[in-house]
TrEMBL record:
Name the record gives this protein: Aminopeptidase
Gene Ontology molecular-function annotations: aminopeptidase activity
PANTHER family: BLR5678 PROTEIN (PTHR36512:SF3), D-AMINOPEPTIDASE (PTHR36512)
Magnesium as UniProt keyword: no
The keyword Acetylation is annotated on this UniProt entry: no
UniProtKB keywords: Aminopeptidase, Hydrolase, Protease
Length: 330
């Protein structure tokens, strides 16, 4: 099964991604960092909004995003038990760059998302430490790996090997062309649910069906260079659910499905008395961006599946890659 180059979230100018991967025996995990721009995000905050599709997640920072409508740190992804450690690392990094934080200036709002990689990774080992966040941050680049890397190392998707995937699309509104890119941490779904380009591939691969409930999660990050405010970005984030549904997900009871959208079109300077907004896109003209968000999320999920390698981890558990499954079961 062939696929075209899906692009990546880094097609939005200024956005970079870095990984730190831990892969040894029962430890199959890591950290992934998304930088919305190359500068200090605390001093030049980024407009953002989140949408919780199903809330079975343990993230840090969603309340502040909802209230303030901006990012103050890069976005971090890791496993469930690593959230607190990575949040501490984000705070320390912000303080190192801005020593007045928590003293003469307000505190900083870290942002960490998670999925549970406990099938392949021994989460009880608490293998993720603060240095791994720093390593992922230092590795940020427009050219980054996908699949079983960084936070995606131990993730499962449709009972196959999941992980990090990315894609992008162009949306045209009037005379303007805007880039919308997605990055996902894919860790959800049962094999029988998997749909690729409208085809029920999972049913063909599975053979005998079973009735286990969907208990995974997915984090969907959407970047755009379109001039939107936080309210509009929340509307854009909601369209991630359309792309997720196309792959077969039903957002099961135990699933943590969270989307966040941000724009690089402008920043909110920390020290400014006023913020100069660009001309914002009329809500009635947003449909091309909604389409681009749904398409890029769908393709990012497939990118995670096609990019991942087969991984063995804790207690002999093993997740086969989609590529291997297609070769051996069809």
């Amino acid at each position: 099964m062939m696929r075209d180059d899906p692009g990546s979230i880094a097609d939005v100018s200024g956005v970079t991604v870095g990984h730190c991967t831990l892969a040894q025996g029962a430890i199959q995990t890591g950290v992934t960092v998304v930088r919305p721009h190359p500068g200090d995000v605390y001093r030049n905050k980024v407009p953002a909004a989140a949408c919780v599709i199903n809330g079975f997640g343990k993230s840090v920072g969603l309340v502040q995003i909802d209230e303030l409508g901006v990012l103050e740190t890069p976005i971090a992804l890791t496993n469930t038990f690593g959230v607190g450690t990575v949040a501490n690392a984000q705070i320390r990094a912000a303080i190192a760059a801005n020593p007045r934080i928590g003293r003469e200036e307000p505190s900083v709002n870290p942002l960490v998302f998670e999925c549970n990689d406990g099938y392949l990774n021994d989460m009880q080992a608490f293998a993720v430490d603060e240095a791994h966040y720093a390593s992922a941050l230092d590795a940020c680049s427009a050219d980054f790996a996908r699949g079983a890397v960084g936070a995606g190392r131990g993730m499962s998707c449709f009972e196959l090997k999941g992980g990090i995937g990315s894609a992008s699309r162009t949306a045209r509104i009037g005379e303007h062309a805007y880039t919308t890119g997605a990055l996902v941490l894919a860790n959800f779904g049962r094999l029988s649910q998997l749909i690729i380009a409208g085809e029920a591939v999972g049913r063909r691969l599975q053979g005998e069906a079973h009735a286990k409930p969907e208990q995974g999660s997915i984090i969907m990050l959407i970047a755009t260079d379109a001039p939107l405010d936080a309210r509009q970005l929340r509307r854009l984030a909601m369209r991630a659910a359309a792309g997720l549904a196309r792959t077969g997900s039903v957002y099961g009871h135990g699933s943590g499905d969270i989307a966040l959208a941000f724009t690089t079109a402008y920043t909110a300077p920390h020290d400014a008395d006023f913020i100069a907004l660009p001309l914002l896109i009329n809500d009635a003209r947003l449909d091309p961006l909604f389409q681009a968000a749904a398409d890029s999320v769908e393709q990012a999920i497939l990118d995670a599946l096609f990019s991942a390698e087969t991984v063995a981890g804790r207690d002999g558990h093993r997740r086969v890659s989609l590529n291997e499954a297609l070769k051996t079961r069809t």
